[in-house]
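QA checklist item 7 of 12: single-chain prediction sanity check.
[x] sequence parsed
[x] length recorded as 424
[x] structure emitted
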Amino acid sequence: MLKTIRLLLCLALSSSALHVHAQLSDKVIAVVDNDVILQSEFSERLLNITQNAQGRNLPPRAELEELVLDQLILESIQLQLAVNNGIRVNDNQLNQALTAIAEQNNMTFDQFRNILNSEGGYQDFREQIRRDIMINNLQSNAINARISITRQEVENYLRSEAAQIDIAPEYRVNHILIPFDALGQNQRVEELADLLYQQIQEGEDILQLASSGQILGMPVSGGDLSGWRKLENLPTMFRPVVPDLAVGEVSEPFRSDSGFHIVKIVDKRGGSDLQVNQTHLRHIQIRPNEIRTPQQAESLINELHERIENGEDFGDLARVYTDDPGTMVSGGDLDWMTEGQLPPDYQQVINTLEIDEISDPFQVEGIWHIAQVLDRRVEDVTDENRRFQAEQIIRDRKYDTELENWLSEIRDTAYINIKLGDGD
């Protein structure tokens, strides 16, 4: 059973090996800066790779051993760098990662843990995941700091044909086709298409209708266009229709050489078009501190709320009392805030307010607030979103090269003494 779990998880992890505690008889096969690599670790890694090969051709044994040892050396160097840079993974972060791995394998966290525990491998596996996360975080910090992306690079990419493909949205589409009658009774075909459109609008399942094979004595076909598809990968007759439909929306029947079609957009992802909800806010923030107890903070926020209710100016009170230095001069003005920028509990309060309405005092993470909604708008941030996506794509393309260069550099600067093959 453990072998099966290892095989499944090998696909999800950055490292395929499970940590093995050193035995008293272990031999040191390499010294890497302030760490050592043991024969047991090396043997276990080799064993896991050969067991999980799944029919793939492996290099000759001597070459494989060299590659495995080099992998262990690089991991050791990176773990030491992670520790030296203060990178830690607490138990909560680790549990979240393990839960995600369990879900990838269609298990709950408890089921996953119980299977590993039954084979005595849970703690070793848990610590290996901790090390993997530390290495991934180290790499992400180091490599992203090395990558620079110029404005000109972004502009050049956005003008390229590749950008039109990469940034284009993808769709999940259901459809139904009512083919033309072999006897030329196409008026009946159009009438049936109109009828099915009305039924779908009223809640009928388009997939069930498409799979029925025949309706009112006339053939129908269609179903789910499997997988996510960019516009250029959709059937030609669908391309003028799909971009204008919202998720969940059904097209009116449209004609092709084959008959009448109806399509439904099941889902959509990607694309650069983006409108976001924004709220213009101002607030007063009161927090406990060395000279103000939590009870005094609560008393002060209630007093300020009462003074505002009695007609005193919100901005004037914010300039005097707020503990938010970034908005003190502006009278508590937070400017336009995009939905999602605020903490969830804060956003929940804001969502309940009308324009010009002032909230009751509320507490978020121990800090008291009074907030006022000054205005709301829907902002088109398509241009910013296109540039953001372009930067991410360019960064991803540079990442692997920079990672390879960085790994080579840290290996070259580390103290490495390989003892594998020594006669002692």
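[x] summary fact logged: The domain at 169-269 is CATH 3.10.50.40 (Chitinase A; domain 3).
[ ] second reviewer sign-off
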